[in-house]
Amino acid sequence: MAGIKGSGTLPGSYAVRVAPKQYLLQNKNLMWIQFSLGTDLHTVFQSYGNMPLVSISDEPDTLYRRLSVLVKGHDKAVLDSYEYFAVLAAEELGLSIEKVYEPPRKIERMTLLKSVHVYKKHRVQYEMRTYYRCLELKHLTGSTANVYLEYIQRNLPEGVAMEVKKTKIEKLPEHIQKPIWGTLPQVEETVNES
Amino acid sequence: MLPRLRGAWTPALLQCAANSTAVSKSRSESRGTRWRRREVPRHNRLLGIPRTKKMPVDQDWSNVYPVAASFKPSVVPLPIRMGYPMKKRAPPSKEGNLELIKIPNFLHLTPGAVKKHCAALKNFCTEWPTALDSDEKREQHFPVEIDTVDYVSAGPSIRNPKARVVTLRVKLSKLNLDDHAKKKLIKLVGERYSKDTDILTITTDRCPLRRQNYDYGIYLLTVLYHESWKTEKWESEKTDADMEEYIWENTCSQKNVLDTLLRIKAAEKISDVPREELLASEIVENYKNSVVLLKNEGETEDNMSKYKESVKKLLNLQGFQ
């Protein structure tokens, strides 16, 4: 397995699959242009030339135990549609969905004076509603997570915000495996003689 | 207001003349048939058949909406109505409806289009390693967990200062620590250690960048680990109040038990039994276990009954209930 030291027992390679960033962008633009000519998606790849789109590098992929995507918006219907889209995309890419739930909404209300000057008894009230939707995925590799998150975030609707909480799992650093005090050369302690 | 063009050949009229067979009347003809309505309305900018009428039923919808675009009533063939209805009327139709244009639409993300996108993106994804299918294997090989948060929102700036916070979590049982090192580390770390789950949580946000905070977190873990293995000179001054758990050796409880047993033996006039034998005997072991349980875990039904049994055996009071 590429790039991992001291873990020969782990079978299965998970080398990073890196998409050169510009390819992903240009694919989308190309899709738009090509569709106006009425051609199919598949011809985009062939007509772009013989450049490889996927390059595999040697560094080991990061592993995410959990990816928690929280979307916030003012309109519940928009979040419903977005959740349908995100869940469909996750299923198509073969990701395991842990759970999808709706945290309770928050309403911020403010009561302001209606008039510019005087008239304290006449006020006007505004409220700002924030609806939430949370989608939790488990067991992703770094490349898959990057691909999925980029796709999701490019298609984020207007007026919707997102927070992504990633839980990465890692090995213990090498310098923590054993205590070092036995192995260091003895340094003579100098005593302050005043 | 559009300017009135009497008899002038506007581009729209030219186009219409090219497409349709009906010819607009010239001035001489219209005088005779003055009250007959014109074949073509004068101020209509959008002449031509809307795209909805020209769509085949089996078309590819991703050709109509390949990218996110606003709602166009002449392109979407659905009879949608949206908005608050006036009295005794239906909600406003889709022509010229601002509500439909304002709301974000997902017409470019139909299930067919999403499946096509995902099929193209599948090449860039990697599989989760099949060897790491159980929790124990994951914890054994990858015990450290790093939590980071990314924020996406629209605004004047894409940066969010909360994004630099990094949380590091590790179980102490996975670290190579001996008894003294573990106790010292727990004392050093204080509130960041949770006894129920045996997880040490380090949250760093003092550096301006996320990578710096991550490095600082790893550095803190390293320093804690190595410091806890060291034994300083002043650690020998640890008092009973500092101890995390009750240790029975060298306590007055032990002395009392030995005293009592020796006196019992002296009363029965048995020769002096050496102290080590008394300590190692089962009765004293039982008593020691029950006292340690009581002190460490508190008073429960189980613990109290064990203590009662051990005291009865110690003092030979088996007859009592």
Ends apart, CA distance between termini of chain B: 107 Å
Q: Give the C-level CATH assignment of the largest domain in chain A.
A: Alpha Beta
Shape of chain A: extended
Number of domains of chain B: 3
Query: Largest sheet of chain A, described in full?
Result: 5 strands, antiparallel
Q: Please state the CA-atom Rg of chain B, rounded to the nearest Å.
A: 43 Å
Quaternary structure of the protein = heterodimer
Integer tally of domains of chain A? 2
* CATH top level class name of the largest domain in chain B: Alpha Beta
List the helices and strands and how they pair.
The complex is a heterodimer of chains A (194) and B (321).
Chain A: E1 15-18, H1 21-36, H2 42-47, E2 55-60, E3 63-73, H3 76-92, E4 96-101, E5 106-113, E6 123-141, H4 142-154, E7 160-170
Antiparallel strand pairs in A: 1-2, 3-6, 3-7, 4-6, 5-6
Chain B: H1 11-19, H2 27-32, H3 51-54, H4 61-64, H5 98-102, H6 111-121, H7 135-141, E1 144-152, E2 166-171, H8 179-189, E3 193-194, E4 199-204, H9 210-229, H10 252-267, H11 275-280, H12 282-297, H13 301-314
Antiparallel strand pairs in B: 1-2, 2-4, 3-4
Helix pairs in contact in B: 8-9, 12-13
Characterise the protein shown here.
Chain A is α+β, with helices and mostly antiparallel strands and 194 residues long. Chain A folds into two domains: 19-48, no CATH class; 63-169, Ribosomal protein S10 (Alpha-Beta Plaits). Chain A is 27% helix and 34% strand. Chain A has four helices and seven strands; from the N terminus they run E-H-H-E-E-H-E-E-E-H-E. In chain A, strands 3, 4, 5, 6 and 7 form a five-stranded antiparallel sheet that branches. A two-stranded antiparallel sheet of chain A has the order 1-2. A four-stranded antiparallel sheet of chain B has the order 1-2-4-3. Chain B is of the alpha+beta class. In chain B, a hairpin with a 4-residue loop joins strand 3 and strand 4. Chain B has three domains: 53-119, no CATH class; 143-232, Double Stranded RNA Binding Domain, CATH 3.30.160; 245-315. Chain B is built from 13 helices and four strands. Chain B starts with 10 loop residues before the first helix and ends in a 7-residue tail after the last helix. Chain B has helices at residues 11-19, 27-32, 51-54, 61-64, 98-102, 111-121, 135-141, 179-189, 210-229, 252-267, 275-280, 282-297, 301-314, and strands at 144-152, 166-171, 193-194, 199-204. Helix content of chain B is 40%, strand content 7%. The chains are: A alpha+beta (194), B alpha+beta (321). Chains A and B meet through strand 1, helix 1, helix 3, strand 6 and helix 4 of A and helix 6, strand 1 and helix 9 of B. Chain B: Keywords: Ribonucleoprotein, Ribosomal protein. Chain B: InterPro entries: Ribosomal_mS35_mit (IPR019349), Ribosomal_mS35_mt (IPR039848). Chain B: One of its GO terms (biological process) is mitochondrial translation. Chain B: This is 28S ribosomal protein S35, mitochondrial. Chain B: One of its GO terms (molecular function) is structural constituent of ribosome.
